Structure formats: C-alpha cells, structure tokens
Amino acid sequence: MVESKRTFAELYKAGEIAFDRGEYRGCIKQLTAALEEISPQSLQGGQAQLKLVYAYQGLGEGENALDLCRALTTHPSYDVRDEAKQLLYILEAPRLKRPEQWMSKIPDLDQLPESPPQYKKGTNLPKKEETPIEPMNLDKSQNYSFIIFALLIISVSFGLFFLFSRVN
Of 12, 66, 101, 147, which one is least surrounded by beta carbons within 10 A? Predict the structure, then answer.
C-alpha cells in the first residue's frame, strides 16, 4: 500500500484541530511533520512554530515553549518576531501568589460514603390535576365605553392643539 505524502497545509490544519480539541501531543506531532514540509524561516513556518509554543505550554512543557519562543524572536518575519516577543514577555513573567481567600476549594468527593440513590429511573409519580383555564368574560359595554372615552380625549387634545397653534 502506498502512503500518500501530506502537504504542509493539511498537516498544519490537522495540528490546529488537535490543538483546539486540547490534544497537545497530537498537535505537536502534526506541526512537527508540517515543519518538515516547509522552511521554518518562512511566514507559514513561523506561524506553525508559534502554534507549537502554545502546544508545548498546554502540555506543561514550559522549557520547550520558552526555548522555541526565544528562538522565534529572531525570525525573519516581522509578524512572527513580534508575536514571539509578546508571548515571551508573558511566559517569562513571574508567577504571582494568589491569596487563599481568592481560591475556591473543591471538595474531594471520593472521601464521601456511598449512599443509595434518591430517585429511581422510570417511576411514575401521580400527576397534579390541572384546572382548565376559563376565558375572561368581559362586558362588551365596558369595552365600548373605554373606546369612546379614549376617542373623546384624543379629539379634545387635537382641538386644543389647533386652537393654541392658531393663536400665536
């Protein structure tokens, strides 16, 4: 069986997909293979190496991430160089201690004793009786009196408006 050689774009895309899924080892493998297909000094090669820095950092390999990021600060592409410098600034920043009250403690649920389930799947509980909703019985004379009153107010308002607009 003949294995077809994958292009840089295919390998880079596979690396990005692996990175987005949190599969950092797979991302590193794909991006390393992609870098064998293109010059590391090109813009695309630099972008692949930057993605490698993020993958190393996600995997917890901070030293590999720092070494590669330092090397990228002298990359021929300005965009890669600039992003590498910004990223290196973040990676080399001192770790700040957080006060204990800022932290949420998550209890260890393995220490809890076993308890029987409170709910059983598939049990039928009696349903509440629903009272039917009855339509409102409105007196039609009330509806018409409101409409007549509203029309009267509107017509008086227009009359006063026109009266005062002619006076000036």
Answer: 101
Which of 10, 19, 80, 17 lies closest to 45, judged by CA? 80
Sorted by where each begins, the domain ranges of the chain are: 8-91
Q: Per residue in 51-101, pLDDT tens? A: 999 999 998 888 999 999 999 999 999 999 999 999 999 988 888 887 888
Question: H/E element holding 151?
Answer: helix 140-167
Q: 13, 85, 86: which is closest to 48 by C-alpha? A: 13
Q: At what angle are helices 24-35 and 43-59 packed, to 10 degrees?
A: 160
**CA distance linking residue 66 with residue 64, whole number of Å:** 5
Residue 139 CA to residue 94 CA, distance in Å, equals 76
Cα Rg of the chain (Å, integer) = 36
For 8-91, CATH gives: 1.25.40.10
5: which DSSP letter? P
